[in-house]
Design brief:
This protein is an all-alpha fold and 91 residues long. The chain has four helices and no strands. It has one domain. Helices cover 45% and strands 0% of the residues. The model is unreliable at 20-25 (pLDDT under 50).
Length: 91
Amino acid sequence: MDFRYIAVSVLLLIPVMTGCAATNAAEPGWAPFVIARGEERQIIRSLPIEQRPYRPLHFYGNTVRRMHYRGMPLPNFGELTGQPVRPVPVR
């Protein structure tokens, strides 16, 4: 009986922990850089803040986009896991 309870609990928690793909369908993805330079900067600046890509350490813009798409300013667990961190080449 205890094993069944644990198994059912785990099976119900897996979809909650991984998130739903339909929720993220319209959101912009993460940019691989923190500071945009040159042409990339001009492209990003020309977009409305809700359509700009998420960028690490850009707390205000990321929060505005989260509230626009989901009404939830804090990231969920699925968004925090698996985000690659790549060094930015210095130009």
